[in-house]
Write a structure and sequence with these properties.
Number of strands: 3
Strand content: 25-35%
Number of helices: 2
CATH superfamily: Ribosomal protein L30/L7
Distance between the termini: 10 Å
Structural class: alpha+beta
Shape: globular
Length: about 60
């Protein structure tokens, strides 16, 4: 599986509860926090829901 680095680059202020829950489920908290995840269909779907709030980098 491919690993990705996900960074929260925009604030969660004035975001819907669903978007806040998705970001929390990804393991992100404050702005500029970063996590590394294995890319799976579930993680891929979460990334798609909040792609406007995050930055994603592929790891080799």
């Amino acid at each position: 599986m491919t690993k990705v680095r996900i960074t929260l680059v925009k604030s969660l202020a004035k975001r819907s509860p669903q978007q806040r829950a998705t970001v929390k489920a990804l393991g992100l908290g404050k702005t500029n926090s970063t996590v590394e995840k294995e890319l799976s269909p579930a993680v891929n779907g979460m990334i798609a829901k909040v792609k406007h709030l995050i930055k994603m980098d592929s790891l080799s």
